[in-house]
Amino acid sequence: MIGFYNYTVLLTYLGFSSSVLGIILAMTGHTFAAIFCLMFSGLCDMFDGKIARTKKNRTNDERQFGTQLDSLSDLVCFGILPAVIGFKIGLDKPYMIIVLVFYSLAALIRLAYFNVLEINRNSSDPVVYYTGLPVTSSALVFPFIYIFKKFLGCCFPLVYGIVLLIVGILFISKIKIKKPNIKIMILFIIIGVIEILLIVSIFKFL
In which element (H, E) is residue 177 found? Predict the structure, then answer.
């Protein structure tokens, strides 16, 4: 079979599979489960690069494969899944669908742009700052918005759509964001767990 098969890409495969499942769940009306899949994909994406770098003897083809695989997976996980969730919660009017398309397109542009930069970047130069909002941030932003679904009532789809629009703009903006260290990443995980507990508590899924 074509491709490169080793432990360095397992988390990417797992995160991608989670988001495909999330799309299916969202399309069948299980938005909470889809939100959980989005968050799980974010967790996988947070550590897949670090795990990949533990393999010291990777060939250039293996590194490039990992880079391309990560971006393609990110497009589905954080560019498509949040838009599908938005459509299923009520963003189904023509002007709302334009927002969904813009959000996914912004994610696509961002990922393709940074693929080009990564190819041309000297691998010995560490990345200190991100330009624009990383797409992985969707794994925390939209679950946070979902917490207020019950309180916002009929206004929730509109709020979700506005956030989609803002996040899409931030994807392709030139703002500088410092790359998180391991402590910040652990904080993100804690925030994610709190978000899940709040959603479960509010919607009484247990």
Answer: strand 176-178
